C-alpha cells in the first residue's frame, strides 16, 4: 500500500496496474493488450506515457511488442524464477563499499543486523552478498533459492538488470530505481533541518561536503543544501560545495584543501557533511590545521552511525533510523512473499531528526 502523499509518475501507475492484471491472469499468456489508443483512453493520458509503461513491461518480459500489430502477454510462468517455498532473502550491496572507512559500510552494517533479526523472527534467513560488476546474480539466486532481494545503496545497473530478469520480489534501500519499491531517508528534509539549526545558532558561512557522484543520497543532500541556502538568502554571503566519497579520508582531504585555499577570514563557521565518516574526517583536518571544533568551525554529519557518538567531540548529526528502515523493508518484503500485497513502484520516505551533541557552537 502506498502512503498518503507519495508521488508516482503516471506511466508507473499504468505499469503497476497492467503488471498486476498480468500477474493475476486477467490477461492470459499470448493475449493481446488493448492498443495504445485504447490505453490512452482508459488511463486518460498521452501516447508517450502509455509507451513508457509498455516499455517497462517489455523489459521485464511480461509482454512482447510487435510493431504494427500490438503488445501480447509473454509466458510469465517460464520467465518467473519465484522460489515460493524458500525462506532465504538476499542482502545485495556493492563489494567496493566494503571499505572500513566508508559511511556506507558502517550504515549498512547497522542496517543488516536488525534486518536479519526481523527476518529470523519471521522464519526467514538473510544472506549477504557483495557484488562486483560481472558477477552472475541470476546463478546465485537459483543456486541458493532466493525468495527476495534487498538492493542496498548504489549498485551498477547490471545488478538491477539481472534481478529484474529473475522476476523475484526486490526492494531498493538507500537508492531509487524506477522498477522497484525504494525505501529512502528524507534527505531533503534532513539537510534543511541541519541548515536551519546552524542558522539558529548564528551561522551564515556554511560549507557543504557531498558524497560520491551519482549516488542518490549524495545528489539529494547536495541539492537540498543549495536550495536551503537560497531559501535562507545565504547565497550572497557564503556558498562552498566540496566533493567527497563517503569515506573518512575524503573528508580529511576536502577540509584540508578548503583550509589551504581560503584565507582565515573566509573560513566557514560551519560544515555540513553528507555522511558521518566524512564529518569525522573534517573534524580531524580542522584540528590538524591548529583549529578547534566547535570553537572555530562547527561540524554536522548525516546518518548517526555508532561512531558519531564516540568521536571527540561527539558529532551533531542527522539521524537516519536504521532500525526503523530495516523493519519497514522486511515488513514490506514479507507481506509480499506471504501474498498479502503486490509491490507498487514508488519511493517511501522515512522520517529523520537531528541528534544534537557537542560539535556545534552558537556564535
What does this structure look like?
The protein is of the alpha/beta class and 363 residues long. Helix content is 42%, strand content 19%. The protein contains 13 helices and 14 strands. Helix 12 (307-310) links the parallel strand 11 and strand 12 (316-320). Helix 2 (36-43) crosses helix 3. Residues 1-5 have low confidence and may be disordered. Keywords: DNA-binding, Transcription, Transcription regulation. InterPro entries: LacI/GalR-like_sensor (IPR046335), Peripla_BP_I (IPR028082), Tscrpt_reg_HTH_GntR (IPR000524), WH-like_DNA-bd_sf (IPR036388), WH_DNA-bd_sf (IPR036390).
Helix segment tally: 13
Unreliable runs: 1-5
CATH architecture title of the largest domain: 3-Layer(aba) Sandwich
CATH superfamily of the largest domain: Response regulator
Number of strands: 14
Question: How much β-strand is present in the residues?
Answer: 15-25%
| Rg (CA only) | 23 Å
> What is the approximate shape?
elongated
Here the CATH topology of the largest domain equals Rossmann fold
Q: Helix and strand succession?
A: HHHEEHEHEHEHEEHEHEHEHEHEHEE
CATH class of the largest domain: Alpha Beta
What number of domains? 3
Structural class by secondary-structure content:
alpha/beta
The description of the largest β-sheet is:
6 strands, parallel
Straight-line distance between termini = 46 Å
The side-by-side strand order for the widest beta sheet comes to 4-3-5-6-7-13
Task: Please estimate the helix content.
Answer: 40-55%
Amino acid at each position: 500500500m502506498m502512503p498518503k502523499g507519495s508521488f508516482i509518475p503516471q506511466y508507473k501507475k499504468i505499469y503497476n496496474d497492467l503488471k498486476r492484471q498480468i500477474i493475476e491472469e486477467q490477461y492470459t499468456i499470448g493475449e493481446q493488450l488493448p492498443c495504445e489508443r485504447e490505453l490512452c483512453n482508459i488511463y486518460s493520458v498521452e501516447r508517450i506515457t502509455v509507451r513508457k509503461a509498455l516499455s517497462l513491461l517489455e523489459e521485464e518480459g511480461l509482454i512482447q511488442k510487435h510493431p504494427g500489430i500490438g503488445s501480447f502477454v509473454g509466458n510469465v510462468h517460464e520467465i518467473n524464477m519465484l522460489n515460493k517455498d524458500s525462506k532465504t532473502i538476499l542482502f545485495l550491496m556493492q563489494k567496493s563499499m566494503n571499505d572500513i572507512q566508508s559511511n556506507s559500510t558502517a550504515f549498512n552494517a547497522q542496517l543488516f543486523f536488525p534486518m536479519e533479526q526481523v527476518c529470523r523472527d519471521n522464519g526467514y534467513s538473510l544472506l549477504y552478498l557483495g557484488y562486483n560488476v560481472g558477477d552472475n546474480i541470476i546463478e546465485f539466486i537459483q543456486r541458493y533459492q532466493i525468495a527476495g532481494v534487498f538492493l542496498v545503496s548504489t549498485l551498477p545497473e547490471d545488478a538491477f538488470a539481472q534481478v529484474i530478469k529473475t522476476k523475484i520480489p526486490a526492494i531498493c534501500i538507500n537508492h531509487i530505481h524506477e522498477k522497484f519499491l525504494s525505501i529512502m531517508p528524507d534527505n531533503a528534509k534532513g539537510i534543511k533541518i541541519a541548515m536551519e539549526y546552524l542558522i539558529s545558532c548564528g551561522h551564515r558561512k556554511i560549507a557543504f561536503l557531498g558524497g560520491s557522484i551519482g549516488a542518490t543520497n549524495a545528489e539529494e543532500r547536495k541539492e537540498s543544501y543549495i536550495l536551503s541556502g537560497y531559501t535562507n538568502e545565504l547565497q550572497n554571503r557564503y556558498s562552498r560545495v566540496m566533493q567527497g566519497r563517503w569515506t573518512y579520508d575524503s573528508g580529511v582531504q576536502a577540509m584540508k584543501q578548503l583550509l589551504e585555499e581560503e584565507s582565515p577570514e573566509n573560513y566557514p563557521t560551519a560544515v555540513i557533511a553528507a555522511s558521518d565518516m566524512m564529518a569525522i574526517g573534517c573534524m580531524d583536518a580542522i584540528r590538524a590545521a591548529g583549529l578547534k571544533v566547535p570553537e572555530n568551525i562547527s561540524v554536522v554529519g548525516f546518518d548517526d552511525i555508532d561512531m558519531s557518538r564516540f568521536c571527540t567531540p561527539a558529532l551533531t548529526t542527522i539521524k537516519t533510523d536504521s532500525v526503523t528502515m530495516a523493519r519497514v523493508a522486511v515488513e514490506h518484503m514479507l507481506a509480499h512473499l506471504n501474498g498479502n500485497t503486490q509491490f507498487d513502484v514508488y519511493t517511501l520516505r522515512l522520517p529523520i531528526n537531528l541528534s544534537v551533541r557537542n560539535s556545534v557552537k552558537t556564535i
